[in-house]
From TrEMBL, chain A:
UniProt superkingdom: Bacteria
UniProt name for this protein: Aminotransferase
A matching Pfam family: Aminotran_1_2
Domain Aminotransferase class I/classII large, chain residue ranges per copy: 36-385
Keyword Lyase included in the entry's annotation: no
Family stated for the protein in its record: Belongs to the class-I pyridoxal-phosphate-dependent aminotransferase family.
Automatic annotation (TrEMBL), chain B:
Domain named HTH asnC-type: residues: 1-82
Residues annotated as transmembrane: none
Name of the molecule in the record: DNA-binding transcriptional regulator, Lrp family
Keywords: DNA-binding, Transcription, Transcription regulation
GO molecular function annotation: sequence-specific DNA binding
Domain of life according to the entry: Bacteria
SUPFAM superfamilies: Dimeric alpha+beta barrel, Winged helix' DNA-binding domain
Length: 394, 165
């Protein structure tokens, strides 16, 4: 092989070479190349951001408030977040030292991992889960250790599965309820059992609660509200899902002071601060957004009820997802893999779903369907998936 | 009125054509129960009708003219404003009628084929009523939003990517 010596060969880091592009990408490319598809593959609300929130951001621009904010974000916003968390979930964080406004919950996940992971540290990740956890653990130098959940246990964590995977290198546990992609929620009882394992093994917990508000059959239990957990938990959340603000990229982290200080160091060098106009929008969401958020929650719950019942009617096994806006039915009985099922459904019936295996261990044999779509689309999608299943069954 | 009925009403207020079967699933209630609830709400005149919201300006049918008329009246002892209100709302041209607080008493919404139609109605039918003291007629020039629905260009389409994590 002749390589011209002066030609530059990419000199990428081993860390970046270790991670793979998201498995969702292939489906995005395939679905994007087709017309008239019904997409249940979307991981975001189907509402636009409520107008009062958009208007508040416009107003901030009109006033010329376009400079940096404090690294941790506008104090007013941090105070509003702190008040909200206390009132809604009974967790108390000091706005000046324990709250950081981030560029979406995604930055929060990255900051939290980089602040706690040393090379070789193992991080338990409850899967199926959001696609970024394991790659971000790897980038931080850690070793992701999947802890699978399954439909038999409603995709809740079995504490014995955690115990089995503990080693002397286990440093942290990463969990997310309500869960993307399963829609699973965990109540106080189950989380308390998890908390016992956490305490016994002195783990740090990263709790991604971005879907906390979208809980339909009862109140959300925030992990740091479990006794003894606040001191060792980093809570990750944001405005994307509950206020339909995905494109604003605005979220927050809360954690005890030593953790918050560490994460703020990274945030101040890597990000400086979250976008100022988005922070003003978030402040409006916190102050005057509750009513419209409640309306959206009711609408998701109604669509969840419709969609899950309909999936069962057409013959798919589906647990009842208590939160987020996803159903995660099993397609194992068709004999197809998740990927085959999703691809054939897309080509045959023009319905886009996401194959479960891209969300990690326990995801194979399932498909993720987002019901954040209009009722009209959901009804049509059910008809088409039903037709597809009939065809498969001959 | 129970919680289910309230939820059912707010659903069909937004989308009157929703299938009973879908409503039943959404509200986690048997379909025959939903049908019975709808019947009962209709009988109790809670649900007064089902209609479509139409932007006539997009059709080739000649547009009607709509006016909102502020009417000052003398209320009558014993019946207050109700008697004159009834005299006014019985005209089929009257699409809406409200008793208002403020500088006038009744707000009358009138639909006609032309401005002269409406002028004629005001001068011959409305102003001549005994209790009516004065009228101020405002013609609608353009409909931007009606019953919570935005008319004209819908710029708020679905901008989401077809697949995302």
């Amino acid at each position: 092989m002749s390589i011209i010596k002066t030609e530059h060969q990419p000199r990428l880091s081993a860390a970046v070479n270790r991670i793979q592009p998201s498995g969702i990408r292939r489906f995005f490319d395939l679905a994007s190349s087709m017309d008239n598809i019904i997409s249940l593959g979307v991981g975001e609300p189907d509402f636009s951001t409520p107008w009062n929130i958009r208007e508040a951001s416009i107003h901030s621009l009109e006033r010329g408030v376009t400079s940096y904010t404090a690294n941790a974000g506008l104090l007013e916003l941090r105070a509003a977040i702190s008040k909200y968390l206390l009132e809604s979930f009974g967790v108390d964080y000091h706005p000046e030292s324990e709250v950081i406004v981030t560029v979406g919950a995604s930055e929060g996940i990255d900051l939290a991992l980089r602040a706690i992971v040393d090379p070789g540290d193992e991080v338990l990740i409850v899967e199926p889960c959001f696609v970024s956890y394991a790659p971000l653990v790897s980038l931080a130098g850690g070793v992701p250790v999947p802890v699978p959940t399954s439909i038999d246990k409603n995709f809740e964590i079995d504490e014995n599965d955690l115990k089995e995977r503990l080693t002397s290198k286990t440093k942290a546990l990463m969990l997310s309820f309500p869960n993307n992609p399963t829609g699973a929620v965990m109540g106080k009882e189950g989380l308390t059992k998890v908390a016992e394992v956490v305490k016994d093994h002195n783990l740090v917990v990263l709790s991604d609660e971005i879907y906390a508000e979208l809980t339909y059959d009862g109140d959300h239990t925030s992990f740091p509200s479990i006794e003894g957990m606040k001191e060792r938990t980093i809570l990750i959340s944001g405005f994307s899902k509950s206020y339909a603000m995905t494109g604003w990229r605005i979220g927050y982290l809360t954690a005890p002071k030593p953790y918050a200080e560490a994460m703020l160091k990274i945030h101040q060098y890597a990000m400086m601060c979250a976008s100022t106009m988005a922070q003003y929008a978030a402040l409006e969401a916190m102050t005057n957004g509750r009513e419209e958020m409640e309306e959206m929650i009711i609408s998701y719950r109604q669509r969840r009820n419709y969609f899950v019942k309909s999936l069962k009617e057409i013959g798919l096994t589906c647990h009842s997802p208590g939160g987020a806006f996803y159903a995660f039915p099993s397609i194992a009985e068709t004999g197809l893999s998740s990927e085959e099922f999703a691809e054939q459904l897309l080509l045959d019936q023009k319905v886009a779903v996401v194959p479960g295996h891209v969300f990690g261990a326990g995801g194979e044999g399932h498909i993720r369907c987002s019901y954040a779509a209009s009722m009209e689309q959901l009804e049509e999608a059910i008809d088409r998936i039903g037709a597809f299943l009939k065809k498969l069954n001959g | 009125m129970n919680e289910k009925e309230r939820e059912l009403l707010s659903l069909i207020e937004k989308e009157g054509r929703m299938k009973e079967e879908s409503l039943a699933k959404m509200l986690d209630t048997p379909a025959d129960e939903i049908a019975a609830m709808l019947k009962s709400l209709e009988n109790r005149k809670v649900i007064l009708g089902y209609s479509a919201l139409i932007d006539w300006s997009k059709t080739d049918i000649a547009e009607t003219v709509t006016a909102m008329i502020d009417v000052k009246v003398t209320p009558k002892r014993g019946v207050g404003f109700d008697e004159v209100a009834e005299r006014i709302y019985r005209f089929k041209e009257v699409k809406a009628l409200y008793l208002m607080s403020g500088t006038y008493d009744l707000s009358v919404s009138i639909e006609g084929r032309s401005m002269s139609d409406i002028a004629q109605f005001v001068s011959e039918k409305l102003s001549t009523l005994d209790s009516v003291i004065s009228t101020t007629t405002h013609f609608q020039l353009k409909k931007y939003k009606h019953d919570g629905v935005i008319f004209g260009q819908d710029e708020e389409g679905d901008h989401r990517m077809v697949v995302s994590p």
